[in-house]
Specification:
Layout (H helix, E strand, L loop, with lengths): L1 E2 L7 E5 L3 E6 L2 E6 L3 E5 L5 E5 L8 E10 L3 E10 L2 E9 L13 E4 L5 E5 L16 H7 L41
Antiparallel strand pairs: 1-2, 2-5, 3-4, 3-11, 5-6, 6-10, 7-8, 8-9, 9-10
């Protein structure tokens, strides 16, 4: 996604595949499939969430501002939930330096206060596949509609049976649900 040219303090941004959830005391605070991961020098990776995927109603911007020579000024947020107040709960770079522009206006959480749950992407949500790395891709593409309404190659043999063919001897002759698509 993005990386800095600084060899003494490398910064790299990348999109996280799948979903990441943030829980505080068992409560869902953030849930997103649009998470940006910041990998900075030898520090642990940090997840940055878009604000619309964060329960901002439990966070309050406070007066704490910290400076990072590589990222810029960070504003901090206090959490107020279940009679607990934690001042340094989350932070945001609202106007980050250009090297890390992708984290701008996103929220990150202090890991000592929350639990992160990473949920793998479902098969339909997966990212693009490198066709050079997976030779099966070409075979699958040839069996898809070319835009003409027909497959580009002979159809594959069916691997399921038609429900009408699965008659059981004990079934009533004409159940009320036959042919309507319901169970």
């Amino acid at each position: 996604m993005q990386s800095s040219e600084n060899n003494t303090h490398p910064l790299r941004l990348e999109r996280k595949d799948g979903r990441v959830q943030v829980l505080f005391e068992g409560h869902l605070i953030a849930d997103s499939d649009d998470v940006v991961v910041l990998r900075e020098a030898d520090m642990a990776p940090v997840f940055y969430f878009p604000r619309q995927d964060v329960e901002m109603v439990v966070l309050r911007k406070n007066d704490i501002v910290t400076q990072c020579p590589y990222k810029g000024a960070a504003t901090h947020f206090t959490v107020m939930r279940d009679a607990k107040i934690i001042e340094r709960f989350a932070w945001s770079y609202e106007q980050p330096k250009s090297e890390v522009f992708g984290i701008g206006d996103r929220i990150a959480f202090y890991p000592e206060h929350v639990e992160f749950r990473e949920i793998a992407a479902a098969p339909g949500e997966s990212r693009a596949v490198d066709t050079d790395a997976d030779p099966r891709v070409d075979e699958v593409v040839q069996h898809t509609d070319s835009g003409s309404g027909a497959s580009q190659k002979e159809h594959w043999e069916s691997n399921v049976s038609d429900p009408e063919d699965d008659e059981t001897p004990d079934a009533p002759d004409s159940p009320p649900y036959r042919g309507v698509g319901s169970i």
